[in-house]
Write a structure and sequence with these properties.
about 35% helix; about 325 residues; 2 domains
């Protein structure tokens, strides 16, 4: 061993770098798992709009990544309950939670001038909007903005349905769908999306019947769309036997739930939707292909990094 170290300094240096890098990645992932822990669908607040979408729909025979069962979805806006009209399914799910001081959210709202005119900075409805603002600002610090954010004229962050949040409307873009609040009795209203806004890839149901007034919670939901060129390329390869398929888009939810006067639980949820009948009019056999497990786990890691950067924005 000593001779190898002396005679192969480059090999020794490379092995040391690999060992150090592996230790760094391992410790970093452990920290992310501790600060941004993964939870199941049943651990989400009952008022969660994404939980309602998953639990209220028709089940699929295939198991998605991240949960025990999935739901088939109609195209937007999704008013038909006929199972033959279902064109998409939820192919992956991840939810992350972290308990933080409420003061971190109220301080961020004050310093970034996101306080409501009536000053209700401690109201969970406003706290959830502050969480989304911190998320958008934290995400903007990453290298992916150089690749994905083609627009430089994005409007100031607004909480009106259809507002662009980031990305490129002609490529990978994200837009606000709406907000909900259990204490205010406000539910997600997908039909409030302006007619001229980019369309979500699938239906998204209102959570009006799922609102749990016993819990002080609120959330915001955004939808995103993948690049058509990327989807078409993967679909073409899948038609020739590739066992995987890319998601077309999905929904993300940002929830704040008060645990006490001092502590709030923030939840970040992301669900991804994949076409069941790619390249057809819905008469082909349903195709439940999804991303490979490794890509899914990388998506989970990316979600943890995004939530971690959000917490850093809040100085937690």
């Amino acid at each position: 061993m000593t001779n190898i170290i002396l005679n192969q300094p480059r090999l020794t240096g490379t092995l040391c770098l690999i060992a150090a890098g592996s230790a760094f990645v391992y410790l970093g992932k452990r920290r992310l798992n501790r600060l941004c822990s993964r939870v199941s669908v049943t651990d989400l607040p009952k008022s969660s709009a994404c939980r309602n979408l998953i639990e209220s729909g028709k089940r699929t025979p295939e198991i998605p990544w991240g949960m025990d069962n999935s739901t088939v979805l109609s195209p937007w806006p999704g008013s038909d309950d006929n199972s033959s009209s279902k064109t998409h399914w939820i192919s992956s799910f991840v939810a992350l939670q972290s308990d933080i001081p409420i003061s971190a959210l109220t301080n961020y709202a004050r310093t970034h001038k996101t306080d409501e005119p009536n000053g209700q900075a401690h109201d969970t409805h406003h706290l959830a909007q502050t969480l989304l603002a911190a998320f958008v600002n934290g995400r903007a610090t990453g290298p992916e903005t150089w690749l994905l954010d083609k627009r430089e004229d994005l409007p100031r962050l607004s909480f009106s349905p259809g507002t662009p949040l980031f990305g490129d409307p002609k490529g990978v873009g994200a837009f606000l769908l709406g907000s909900w609040s259990s204490t205010r009795g406000i539910a997600i209203q997908p039909k409030a999306l302006p007619f001229d806004s980019p369309r979500p890839v699938s239906e998204f149901s209102s959570n009006s019947e799922a609102l749990d007034t016993r819990a002080d919670a609120a959330g915001t939901v955004m939808y995103w769309k993948a690049s058509d060129s990327l989807i078409n390329a993967v679909d073409r390869a899948a038609s020739y036997g590739l066992p995987w398929r890319s998601m077309q888009g999905g929904f993300q939810e940002y929830i704040v739930e008060k645990l006490s006067d001092e502590t709030a639980r923030v939840t970040y949820i992301t669900i991804e939707c994949t076409n069941l009948h790619p390249g057809s009019n819905g008469d082909a056999e349903r195709d439940y292909k999804k991303l490979p497990r490794l890509i899914y786990e990388l998506h989970v890691l990316y979600a943890q990094i995004l939530l971690y950067k959000t917490l850093r924005q809040l100085e937690v």
